[in-house]
Amino acid sequence: MHNFLPIAYFENQFLPFQDANISIATHALHYGTGAFGGMRGIPNPDNSNQILLFRLDQHAKRLSNSAKFLNYDLPADKIQQVIIDFVQKNKPVNPFYIRPFVYTSDLGIAPRLHKIEKNFFIYGLELGDYLPPDGISCRISSWYRQEDRSLPLRGKISGAYITSSLAKTEAVESGFDEAILMNSQGKVCEASGMNIFIVRDGKLITPGLDQDILEGITRDSVITLAKELGIEVIERAVDKTELFIADEVFFSGTAAKVTPVKQVEMYKLPAERPITEQIKTKLTAITANQDQSHPEWVFAIDI
Fold first, then answer.
1. 200 phi-psi bin (left φ>0, alpha ψ -120 to 50, beta other)
2. In the chain, N or C terminus with fewer CB closer than 10 Å?
3. In a domain, 1, yes or no
4. Cβ distance 223 to 278 under 8 Å?
């Protein structure tokens, strides 16, 4: 049962969440012609009159870029300001998740992006841990990640997430927590909604941006922090067998944060995860404004 924040932004106004409804004839509902973002917010542990958002500017920029794939000009500064207003109106008291969404809001039936109305809404819900923080089990999905030549994978296009949904359900119904998808070249790509990292011989390895992955904001944060901690980071193609013999494997994402993987298929991974824990601890401290090494990542909103 979700605890939704009481106020939503819908059709250029703020109104009660339960009143923000779309028609069953909405174009995006039928054709997947939408794009979304996701970001976490927490009450400031040191100031009850502030909410902390992680890398607000980058989330707004990515959603603005995603909107471009829909032939929709939605400036990042407008997205950022509406999110600030949204938070101030809701005044959340628990950790929460924000879901901004751009979409073709027309009621037509032709699949197209030209000469069609677009719109933008935001809602939120309270959210704790998306995945078990002590570690999860994964299977290799029978479904493959799409290619950038068939879908704009640098945008979080809603229609693309049918693959994620198929992979996630397949994994859970076969006894695992999460799925790992390969790309069309048979290389490790990402999970159903997270980027993936492995550790081998003290080096942090992750699929490069040329591997049909999403350009994750948490992924970028992990890479930055790892380098600052003196950990060598390698972005390259990753083979499936490397997952089975890795010293550590973890996911990164807005919802998942940094989540360790304890098992891939029938292969159990080491219980000791020094690099994962080091990065997770550092990122958690920055997000909660307890570590000032990246103040530009933490956006404080007065409520």
1. beta
2. N
3. no
4. no
